Amino acid sequence: MNARRSTAAPLIAVVISILAAGCTSAGGSTAVTAAAAAPEQPDITVAALPAVDLASLYIAQDQGLFAKQGLRVTIEKIASSQAIINDQLKGAVDISAGSYVPYIAAQANGAGFRILAEASTLGPDSRALVVNANSRITTVGQLAGKKIGLNGTNSIGTLLVSALLAQNGVSPHTVHFVTDPAGFPAMPGELRDGAWSAAFLSEPYITVAAEKYGEQVLADLDQGALTNFPIDGYVATQNWAGKHPNTAAAFVRAIEEGQLIANTDPAAVRAAIGKYDDLPPIVTAGIVPSRYPIGQVSQTRIQRVATAMLQFGMLGHADVAEVRQGTLVGSMIGPAP
Description:
Layout: H1 8-21, E1 43-48, H2 55-62, H3 65-68, E2 72-77, H4 85-89, E3 95-99, H5 101-108, E4 113-121, E5 127-131, E6 147-150, H6 156-167, E7 176-179, H7 187-192, E8 198-202, H8 205-213, E9 216-220, E10 230-237, H9 238-243, H10 245-264, H11 266-276, H12 281-284, H13 299-311, H14 320-325, H15 327-330
Parallel strand pairs: 1-2, 1-3, 6-7, 6-8
Antiparallel strand pairs: 3-10, 4-10, 5-8, 5-9
């Protein structure tokens, strides 16, 4: 797998827009200034998946971007976003960094969540279906009736794989999705041991699977209707965001700086992920970065997730009107932090 080449023009445009604004927040707010209000809660806990999609979080921690904003951040690693939602609603976690899917589902069930900033969208080779080294499965169509390993139940993996199957003429109802509670770090080994016929993996664990076990990519998920699909965001409860607007704004400013670095410096992505996931150079050298949105949270982008969730039965009939009208996703996008 080769790292995606980025074109100069978009990056130059990004840099110019950031410099022109001084450093815009995810809600389009004004620049970091010496007069920025101090965080109400300088010590925060962020629950995060160990995935390249969240590289800006690890870059911001490693390069002191949070500290520059007056924050002391503790990163708690999780297996999936679904696994942390209840703790977040109870106030045990301040911000979660992970898939939109379980948060949209929870919002539909009456929870109050706020997307503070976008984290990533699919890029080539950043999420994939992987088979073991000796697998006889060579096409997506051969997965009908087979077990597919996921890092979370009713997760972004469920959604992406369902869409890929449908694009290849396979009903998602004909496969058996199996959740590994240990998440991505354990999944390459489980795949080698025959737990499933294929596994949904994110970088850097696609590279781990290849380097450590000789496992092969069956299909890159960044294709067809899934191209540049929104994956992860930084999410807080509306209650927390309302009580800590300065903290939320400081967090977003640091993430924005991290996003810019992640988009323009693949080596920084590999270094940060290698450090926080304790990966050797042979693995980090092959890591393929995702795409890292900068600027105001885009309802149009995230609406793609809700629409696909409705299509594949991850939202119910009662949610049809809110999804189609855009009010479900709209309720998660508030004023700029």
